[in-house]
Amino acid sequence: MTVAPADTLFAPVGHGRVAAWAPAITASWGSGLRPRRPLDASVPPSWVRLGSSCFERVADLWSWIDHCYELYGLAFDGDAQLDTYALVRTATAGPNWPWVVKAASIGSQALGGTATQSWRDWSPRSDHSGPCGPFSVSIRSPLPGAETLVERCETWNITKGSAGGAFSVAWSGCACTDDRELASVIAVSVPQGSSVGWVLPASVAGFAF
Q1: Which one in 160, 180, 186, 209 has a CA-CA gap of 20 to 30 Å to 110?
Q2: Can you give the residue ranges of every domain in the chain?
Q3: Antiparallel, parallel or unpaired: β 82-95 and 63-75
Q4: Rounded to whole angstroms, how far apart are CA atoms 13 and 100?
């Protein structure tokens, strides 16, 4: 597992700025790392945690976002052709006192030079607007799991690309003095034994009253 940081970028947005950072990760079961399905076919498939990390805080004068990932591989699936992965993204965004946070986003996209990814599942599956409440993001296919529970507030907008692994979720809906959470999970497959990788962008926007 490798993590390679990219430079922080800033772009003007209204009365504030957006701070964005896009690190990248790569992974492969590799020789001796892939749990093979045993002769006893009664052993069920399961998600195996391969790694996790939280990245450097993304911040500017008005706001900040902390973002993380967890990566799982599907073991004992009996598939001689494909490796399947689940990528969980989580984040907390907030204001720098006395300012407010207005928008934030996290996402993923396939890293150039790694295997082409095929979609298996994703969550959230749709946009949402409403009051704050508990919300679970989790994989249903090819095997339920890779679940995380967050508080979803105001508006979440998802963007799912046609290319495997291209997914983002963006929060907006208030000029908030309180922190806000974001989360997503995707499942993709690649040819067995190949290297898989993602760029993991995160951004936040805040402003002064």
Answers
A1: 180
A2: 2-29+43-207
A3: antiparallel
A4: 14
Q: Which of 205, 202, 208, 209 is nearest to 56 (CA)?
A: 202
**Residue 126 DSSP symbol:** S
Contact (CB, 8 A) for 1 and 25: yes
Q: Would you write out the chain's pLDDT as a tens digit for each of its 209 residues?
A: 333 333 333 233 333 344 555 677 776 655 334 444 444 566 788 999 988 989 989 998 899 999 999 999 998 888 888 999 999 999 999 999 999 999 999 999 998 888 999 999 999 999 999 999 999 999 999 999 999 999 999 999 999 999 999 999 999 999 999 999 999 999 999 998 888 899 999 999 998 86
Helix (H, G, I), strand (E, B) or coil at 80: coil
First and final CA of the chain: distance in angstroms?
Answer: 43
The pair of structure tokens assigned to 154 is 């105001």
How far apart are alpha carbons 13 and 16 in whole angstroms? 5
Residue 49 to residue 188: CA distance in whole angstroms: 15
Residues in CB range of 167: below 8 A, 6 or more apart: 107, 108, 109, 122, 158, 159, 160, 161, 184, 186
Instruction: Give the separation between CA 203 and CA 12, rounded to whole angstroms.
Output: 12
Q: Are 71 and 51 in contact (CB under 8 A)?
A: yes
11, 199 contact by CB (below 8 A): no
